[in-house]
Structure formats: C-alpha cells, structure tokens
Amino acid sequence: MADHLLQAIPPLAVYLVVALMILIESLGIPLPGEIMLVSAALLGAQHKLGVAPEWIAAAGSAGAITGDSIGYAVGRRFGGRLFGWLGHRFPRHFGPGQVAFAERVFIRHGVWAVFFGRFVAVLRIFAGPLAGSLRMPYRKFLMANACGGIAWAAGITYLIWFLGAAAERWLSWVSWVGLGAALAVGLVISVLLRRKARRLAGPADRLAEGAREPSRSARES
Question: Is 104 contained in some domain?
Fold first, then answer.
C-alpha cells in the first residue's frame, strides 16, 4: 500500500507524505511511519520516485522532531487522561501493560529513553506524550528528541538506500550469471543427449549389420 501511494505522487509530495506520516505516528497515533520511510528509501534507490536520500532523511527527521514535540505538549497538558483515552481507542498499542513498560523505561533512563526510544516501535509512539506527562524538562527532551530523530531517520534512509542500490546491482549481475549458467547447462545437456543417442544407436547398428550379413551370404551362394 505504501509503495503504490508513493509511486502515484510527485517527488515533492513524497517528502511531505513521509514527514506527515512520521509526525502523526510520533503524536502517539499508531500509523506506519517507519514503513513509509523504508518504502521511500527503497523505491528511491531503485530510481522509481526521483527523490534524493538526503531529502528523505530530512523529511523523516522533521516529522519525528515535530511530532514528538507536539506529543510532548499534549502529554504535558492532558497527562494520564490522554493514555486512558488512547488505551480505549487503541488497546493493542496503549494497553496498561505497554504504558507501564514505557513509564518504567522513561523513569529509569530519562533522556536516553527518548533517544533510543525512537528506534523501538513500542517506545516510538510513547516518547513525546509520555515525556510530557512525566514532566521531563523540555530542553533535555528536545535535545534527545532531535538527536534521536535525526539518527533514526538518516540511519534508516541511507541503510535502506545503499542496500537497495547494492541489491539492484547484485540482481543485475546475477541475471547475467543466470543467463550464462542457463546456456552452459543447455550446452551440457545437449552434449550428454548426443552421447546417449550415439550409445543407443550403436547396438541398433550392430543388429542391423548382423541382419544384413545372412542376406549377403545367401546371395553369394
């Protein structure tokens, strides 16, 4: 679905969609922001979108930082009521177990939870709202949020981009190797069949020769 959407829109809109999806996910709404980022990087590496990796990374970083900052403000304003409402609407993502786990991580690790939480699916949607709800100082949150968002977006973009480009080159190389292998296999099979036909033809020739010998003897007598 993400692939079809990205291929149906112009390059500038690709950046906006990536940023928007990640922004909404960072607000605490479980949308596939990371999948959108990966799809954009992979399709870009395959030259199907006309986009540049640095702009995909920039769009992903902007969406992550902005979304987490808005989520922080919302979490600071509404606190526990927000998670109660989210738990009712999205029980698979904001159930009591998930919220309790995220709270323990944030209380124990502080800003490091914000930074590394960007790389963990469960913590990614909790980072902003939960940091605000727990009254984490915004300056510390913003620094960890910005560093984590940039590292996450740029890291995924360039990793997928280079892997996609390498895979495309590898597949191109494999296609030529496969063609050569197919020709070689065909040649070997052809040679083996010819040899088999010759071996089978040998006894038949000898039988035919034996059948002709009595007739020659009869004519000579």
Answer: yes
Quote the domain boundaries for residue 7. 2-167
**Structural domain tally of the chain?**
1
Give the CA distances from residue 110 to residues 101, 107, 145, in Å, rounded to whole numbers and listed in that order: 14, 6, 12
Model-level pTM? 0.67
Residue 211 counted as domain residue: no
Task: Single out the residue of 90, 159, 3, 124 nearest to residue 17, CA to CA.
Answer: 3
Residue 132: per-residue pLDDT? 86
**CA dist 221 to 210, 211, 215, 218, Å?**
18, 17, 10, 5
Residue 202 lies in a domain: no
Query: Is residue 214, in this structure, part of any structural domain at all?
Result: no
Quick count: other Cβ atoms within 10 Å of Cβ 26?
29
* Spatial CB neighbours of 9, under 8 Å, sequence gap ≥ 6: 17
With both helix axes pointing from N to C terminus, report the angle between 33-45 and 138-220 in degrees, rounded to the nearest 10: 50
How many C-beta neighbours within 10 Å does residue 220 have? 6
pLDDT in tens, 37-77: 888 888 887 777 788 889 999 999 999 999 999 989 988 88
pLDDT digit string, tens, across residues 104-152:
877 888 888 888 888 887 778 778 888 888 888 899 999 999 999 999 9
